[in-house]
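Tokens in:
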């Protein structure tokens, strides 16, 4: 029991010493003056002081807008002239789209402690569906035909897991992932001829 009271006294003395010494050290401004200055600058400039934000969150927002703009919209194409005009899929998936569609198991590591990389990536794209539906009415698009283009993307890569601490190691594994990507788009159906009515 005497050891516990001795430890409590030691911690109390250390805490009191820190409280007595902290205001006279250079660390005083980091605790009290920054908070005070944030309120003063907020009152003066009409906004709060700049708040540091890690680049991780801005990168997440940029990626979200990039995917929305590039890959999550369904284009509406003009009518194809001719009764027997060939209809074929426009563009296969880009490597960027395939890599973004993979499960995200390489992010979130701590540098030099637990990192995961994808090396020697090879992508094989196969078209598995290419068909056009009958014309029907789509809200906000009008009468159109839906062209289905489905792709099977097989990604081969080396998954490298590396750690530098506490036990340094590197593990390389040959991995194969399959991703299915749909590139559906609408083709407007031409209305009646102008002179037919």
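Residues out:
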């Amino acid at each position: 029991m005497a050891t516990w009271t001795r430890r409590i006294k030691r911690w109390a003395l250390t805490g009191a010493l820190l409280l007595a010494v902290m205001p006279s050290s250079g660390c005083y401004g980091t605790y009290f003056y920054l908070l005070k200055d944030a309120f003063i600058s907020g009152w003066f400039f009409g906004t709060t002081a700049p708040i540091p934000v890690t680049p991780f969150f801005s990168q997440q927002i940029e990626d979200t807008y990039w995917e929305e703009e590039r890959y999550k919209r369904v284009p509406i194409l003009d009518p194809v002239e001719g009764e027997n005009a060939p209809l074929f899929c426009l563009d296969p998936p880009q490597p960027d789209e395939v890599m973004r569609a993979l499960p995200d198991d390489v992010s979130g590591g701590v540098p030099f402690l637990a990192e995961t990389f994808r090396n020697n990536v090879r992508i094989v794209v196969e078209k598995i569906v290419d068909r056009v539906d009958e014309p029907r009415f789509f809200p906000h698009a009008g009468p159109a035909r839906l062209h289905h283009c489905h792709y099977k993307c097989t990604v081969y890569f080396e998954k490298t897991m590396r750690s530098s601490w506490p036990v340094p190691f590197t593990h390389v594994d040959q991995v194969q992932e399959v991703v299915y990507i749909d590139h559906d788009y609408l083709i407007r159906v031409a209305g009646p001829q102008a002179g037919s009515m």
